[in-house]
Amino acid sequence: MSKGGQEPQSKGLQGVEYYFRQLVELLHLLARPRQVVATLRASAGRRRRAVKDYLASFRDPRLRAIPGTLLAWATLSRMLVIFVALVVPAWVLQIVDPFGLSGAVEGHSQTIFQKATAPFYPNTAQSQIAVVLIDQPALARRGESWPPRYLYYEEVIRRVAKQGPSAIFLDVLLEDRRPYDDSLPLALAALEDTLASTGVPLYLATLDDGQRNLFAQVPGTQLAMAGWSGLNGDYPLLVGEDNRYGQMASAGHGQCSADSPPTAAFALYRQLCEQGVQQGCPEGVARGEVERFCSPMVVQWGYNVAPEVRARDLLSASQCKAPDQSVGGRFLSSMQILWSSLLTSFHAETAALGQQTCPYTLTVREEDLSSARSRGLLKDRVVLIGTSLAGIHDLVDSPVHGQLPGVYLHAMALDNLLTWHDRYFTRGDTRLTMLGLGLLLAWVTAALMRANPARLDALLLAFAIVLVLGVSAFFHFALRRPPLDWLGLLLVYELARRMLQRAAEEPDPPQPTGRTS
Question: CB within 8 A of 150, min separation 6: which ones?
């Protein structure tokens, strides 16, 4: 009990009588307009002075003492304590990855970063690739059901080939002959005539390096791998023995050689290099030198839709977000994506705000191949034919679009190759980099603690954000590597800040007086 027998009130939680008194005072103020104006002026003045004092605190003269304390022994000893107590355990946890938490946080960090940088993806190769999509309305219009007759595939290939593409990839597995469909001989003969008359190379999807595709016996066709195992979502350009479809998932990628079967993106890319159509191809790639393409690709997804999609109304989703190639427009799109990522945990539908509703690659529906809206669009493009059908789970997850038909993964990987050639995005071991950044963060933190300037928390937070995001941006734009686990690093920083703040609030232990009894 306090003095006078009254119980002290908590500063954080007030009773009903407190708010009642506030309401009475507000009513009294409203009855005196001049007093209200004077109160507002005084409050505005106090706020201006507070902001002025806050900004002036960043000109603290103690900040100039920081460079002199960087190499002091007291700073280095504190750095060592912070590094051993916080950074090293976090680094060990990243390696051990208990319960997969570290991997999940790192994956989320990379997803957010890739979504935010997608508006800045260069569209230099967007005009070289197109997707022809077979959907349920297209089959119904032809009187077909799934799976359609073999003659249907030949008809689609013929209608595409007549428009003069650079190459065609059919992303449909035709492995087992259906006894009830007798159109296969007619389809093979017609396909041979089509390829001979047009001269367009045709690549067929397969899951191994054998001749399991029923169309593979037609002259002018080649096989390309459309599936693999392992690799944690990365896209291999050459599939080694350990990563063949149906094999046990391996920790890394298999041996790479000129005899390794190529995936669809690399087979089409090499075709363009051999034709001399694509500029900037590495020397030797047309001769089978593949050493530069052994590392799996981390596919980067574009955000800005091809302008022809809206101009010709190629997709029924007319709500496709209009492409804005200006720097300001791309920056605004990036900020919208970051904002939606921040609010995802509060509302599930918020994540859709930052998603692009239409694919990056130019898309033509199969039923529009003969219409005026698609006339001339496929000429000199690489055309990938895929399906978008309910019940066929050929879907991939795009950080920019959500789920898309699997053919778009091959199209986007090819776009990456045509944009960066052998300098595409790959993964690397970032554990030593993370350790070095942790050491630098501990060093600057120790120097700031010794100088102890005003707004220490704000300075530490600003340095941590600039350091982590700056290095991640350098990895992304300069080295073409996935960003660091910046969320994990910022979590470690926040843990360190709270521990240091708690240590600073604890009273110092009593010092011995040196007097004996």
Answer: 174, 181, 183, 184, 186, 187, 188, 214
Q: Give me the residues paired with residue 384 across strands.
A: 131, 169
Q: What residues form DSSP beta bridges with 205?
A: 224
Residues near 439 by beta carbon (within 8 Å), at least 6 away in sequence: 79, 83, 87
Spatial CB neighbours of 418, under 8 Å, sequence gap ≥ 6: 124, 125, 128, 129, 269, 272, 278
pLDDT digits (tens, 9 = 90+) for 165-177: 999 999 998 888 8
Q: Residue 132 pLDDT > 90, yes or no?
A: yes
Whole-model pTM? 0.78
Please tell me which residue, 162 or 248, carries the higher pLDDT value. Answer: 162
- Encode pLDDT of 281-324 as tens digits: 888 787 777 888 989 999 999 988 888 877 777 765 555 766 66
Which residues share a beta bridge with 169? Answer: 203, 384
Q: How far is it, in rounded angstroms, from Cα 389 to Cα 366? A: 13
User: Please, what is the end-to-end C-alpha distance for the chain in angstroms?
Assistant: 38
Tokens of 378: 């496929």
Q: What are phi and psi of 303, to 5 degrees?
A: -110, -45
pLDDT at 82: 79
Q: Measuring CA to CA, how many Å separate 238 from each of 180, 193, 254, 296?
A: 36, 31, 9, 8
Spatial separation of the C-alpha atoms in residues 319 and 282, rounded to whole Å: 40
Instruction: Copy the structure tokens of residue 177.
Output: 């002959």
Structure-derived torsion over alpha carbons of residues 320, 359, 234, 473, reported in degrees to the nearest 10 = -40
Which carries the bigger pLDDT value, residue 416 or residue 260? 416
Position 249: which residue type?
A
Look-up: residue for tokens 């089409």? Answer: 268
State the DSSP code for 232: G
Question: Residue 50 — left, alpha, or beta (φ > 0 → left; ψ -120 to 50 → alpha)?
Answer: alpha
Supply 292's token pair: 């530069």
Over residues 215-241, the mean pLDDT reads 87
SS3 469: helix
Instruction: Quote the crossing angle between the two packed helices 33-57 and 16-30, to the nearest 10°.
Output: 110
Distance CA 122, CA 233 (A): 22
